[in-house]
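Example record

One chain of 322 residues, shown exactly as stored in the release files.
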Amino acid sequence: MSEAEVSDKTIRRDLKVLQNVFDIKERTGDSGVKRWRMKPLADQVGFNYTELLAIHMSQQFMEPLAGTPFWEGNRSVLRKVKGAIGDNAVRYIEKLSAGLHATTVGASDYTQRGEMIDQLMVAIEDRKVTLIVYQSMQATEAVEQEVYPLGMVHHRGSLYLIAWSSRREEVRYFKLDRVESVDIQNLQYQVPPNFDLQEWLSKSFGVWRSGSEDLQTIRIHFARPAARYVQESTWHESQQLFPQEDGTVIAEFELPDTQEIKRWIMSFGPNAGTERAGRRDSRRPCGHGGSVRRKDNTVTEFQRNTTEQHRGELMNSVKQNF
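Predicted structure tokens for this chain:
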């Protein structure tokens, strides 16, 4: 056993452990040489080893969505996989998975909102006009609103509904924690052919976005204590970073509005400030002085197609239902 640099005893012990976990067959040849062959895991359960480990580890990342249809689906897959591979293999996979942990600091609790989330998914899929009772952060009481659900976004531990708001006449986001009830109407809405939710979200610095059509160039100067942290991540697809000789860094973004990025800048305290005329100006509100680069007609097109062509008819139908 010099080639393996381990003893016969060690090899036999390891083989015994593997045979208790996986489907390994022992075969003795004519010359008395023993060989062991493991049936490919993909043939046993439909997944290879790496895929099986990934599926098991994914449950940690799904925990913030506990109670939602997404979480239930993940749990269902795991139950089927565990039933197929047996208890010993499950314990082995769990032992390996213990080396990876996902934090849930600040994550929302959706354990009691699974049915409501499922209703919203139906409304998104079927493109149904929906009435929601929603209390915004600033409101003192909940208000019923008519919305056209377009999709959901998981952002910083919380789920947000992205929908056209008849009340505001623009695409808005609604944090699901603040939705008190959902009532799907028997009315369909039409999404303009040029509207793409992913592209619409790509222009925001998170989930919030106003109806602005113009992109502003926003330049932020980060001091040395924050420079490395900023350079370690991609904060937005338009991001450009310009390291400076003094160890600071200038970040440049193209955004239609500045509400979310303002909060991000403020989180760095004195280590970040917006730039004006090539100089750092931490007192000037972010986005002032930004140059207009190009137009984005997505929101106005949605308003024209959906509001003018359909909203009158839909509103009349909704009123009749009351």
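Notes: The longest helix spans residues 298-321.
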